[in-house]
Amino acid sequence: MTESTVDRRTVLAASGVAAVGVATVLAGCTNGAAPAGSDSATPIATLTDIEVGASRNYRVNGTDLVITRLDDSSVAAFDATCTHEGCLTGPRNGVILCDCHGGEFDTHTGEALAGPVSEPLASIPVVVRDGNIFFA
Ligand code: FES
Predict the structure, then answer these.
(1) Pairwise CA distance, residues 125 & 80, whole Å
(2) Which of 81, 117, 118 to probe ligand 1 with, by most ligand atoms within 8 A of CB?
(3) Domain locations in the chain as residue ranges
(4) How far is the CA of 116 from the centre of ligand 1 (A)?
(5) pTM of the model
(6) In the chain, which residue ranges form alpha helices assigned H by DSSP?
(7) What is the mean pLDDT of residues 60-69?
(8) I need a surface site. Which of 6, 43, 98, 100 has the fewest CB within 10 A?
């Protein structure tokens, strides 16, 4: 019979590697990026396209987004890909809804609210300049 010996330093080093890996994955889940091929000079939409408090779907370079107008001058944008199994989501009845399994997300934060979803929608960095919405 062989005996395995693992000292405390080996365990701590291994857990540190695991912790870094988890942090990287979480960052990737919560921080989306502008779609490939998009730029920060071409507007995604005009601010007045979306009423204050409302949300709309947009498709940019093959990436589906949900943009919510938070107030007179700011918006929040999310990757519209459901974090459960990847279906398209969209605003309906005051939430961002996924028709596949009924997952619901908050229109202002992208947080998972109901259904089988547990991870928020990835936020997409955008800015409002001169009444237009651009990728940041
Ligand atoms: S894929 Fe969206 S709830 Fe299942």
Answers:
(1) 14
(2) 117
(3) 1-136
(4) 7
(5) 0.77
(6) 8-30
(7) 95
(8) 6
